[in-house]
């Protein structure tokens, strides 16, 4: 990859990134920084990682040509099917990578944060597979609204600890996980998104980059060309988006579109459109764009999708947006819901609410009939059935 | 004007008592009263915590006091007004402790200018990395006569302790154990060995924090350092007894 989009030695993408951590975390972060590249680039690691992706996750996930959607929007639409990945989302790719790293670092217990519960489930899954104890921090509010995933984690043997501080959602679950790591430095912190201090954003990007690596091969077979015209992905912290964009970053003609959760609308005060409403600052040890007050207090965002309900954005995304490499399209709760029903009834695929934000871009942006447009379906919609059922009844 | 904290460390070499409290807590107007009362009761140094939505290095007691202060209507503008007010009579060294995002959003230059103007002597910003401090902040802080304190933990290597010692312009904050604030109490043999190791490596004054709560822990800490810092225990006392309890508490710690 060109230097333009590659992480610098001290963890920056342009002005974004770094490791703004208290001294109490320095040794842990340094251990990771000094070892992660060497470990994950070793042939032995890659063999085990690739083998699990194929034998355990069921990869490669298909790249489905969406015939009826293509007719509806008068363009060539392909769906990257992370919803068919084991556990139901792209989150498992990263969890597998990091658990293999944790094992090689000799770590005996895993901690993680989760919002909607998808990353928590993925982490609990790999911990069961590797027989390592697992603690997942989850905001008390999210625990109440994502019960099926809480029960899945518990069935997998993980301990779900409620985050009771602040607004008791993903941001606070992340704070609690970081505090746990400060008090228990011998544990391994398995971050779920392309956020946090260096080297996490780069590490998560590398593990998720399997998504665009597969796309290139699949596109070549299906279209005769390795690159599409457009890639669309939703972005909260931005792990599925970074995975879907990664191997196209240097192909400047490939248009990259990030669907951001606009909640009830950009100007409603109830939104999670970080790149539009945010200003530069530090969140969870990373210099990036975040939603905050004039006094630097971090604001609680709103989105119908718990997975996009994050007041910051991964540092690589902040860089891609600032430099104009990626374009942001805000999508409201209502637009995302509508897009979920459109996909369900034209292709028979119920997408996660997060992925529905990416799909909603098709309603807002017109592409050429010949354009090859890939939409990353980051996860399946089973966990969102309560919301979908309510929406169906609202339309009755 | 001379830095009050530097002057303190030049004249006092032992039993230095540093009290941390959260601005705007329990009541929004208590900041001034607490500073004055702490000075009157014999605190040598006061660390004023800036309430923050996401205080990563702090335990539940300090978090909750910050959340309450924000609900009380705390702002940075108000904080600097309160410090100006307290400075009309108080001469005790004052340090602000906050997180780097708060400075960035307020504007770092504006923040340090306000510090200097209102009578702040030093800063503790636990998530400001030393390399960024050296490159971007050191000169600016010095220009406004603000000292800067780094944290050292049981996991900090000898080499890094020396580096932090040479960069520090105030005292070194010796974190007593791998923990967030307010987590543990008491001092073990292992910790004593760690305090001794640090003493052999550095030249800056040292204050021990985390787990200091009463006369016993304060006295033990003062055996191995110039003084100690009490935070969560003081805030717990304030929650129960309010500002009226300050004098009794400080006297009990001094013993």
What does this molecule look like?
The complex is a heterodimer of chains A (396) and B (255). Chain A is an alpha/beta fold and 396 residues long. Chain A folds into two domains: 19-52 and 90-204, Rossmann fold (3-Layer(aba) Sandwich); 58-89 and 209-395, 3-Layer(aba) Sandwich (Rossmann fold). Helices cover 44% and strands 17% of the residues of chain A. Chain A contains 16 helices and 14 strands. In chain A, the strands form four sheets. In chain A, strands 3-4-14-9-10-13 form a six-stranded mixed β-sheet, with helices on both faces. In chain A, strands 7-6-5-8 form a four-stranded parallel β-sheet, with helices on both faces. In chain A, strands 1-2 form a two-stranded antiparallel sheet. Chain A is globular. The relative contact order of chain A is 0.16. Chain B has 255 residues and is of the alpha/beta class. Chain B is built from twelve helices and nine strands. Chain B has helices spanning 4-11, 30-41, 60-71, 76-87, 100-106, 108-118, 130-143, 158-167, 189-199, 215-224, 232-241, 246-254; strands spanning 16-22, 45-49, 94-97, 122-124, 147-148, 151-152, 172-175, 206-209, 227-230. The termini of chain B are far apart. Chain A binds chain B through residues 10, 18-24, 26-27, 165-166, 171, 175, 178-179, 182-185, 279-285, 290, 292-299, and chain B through 52-54, 56-57, 59-60, 63, 67, 70, 75-76, 99-106, 126-129, 131-132, 150-153, 155-157, 160, 164, 175, 178-180, 183.
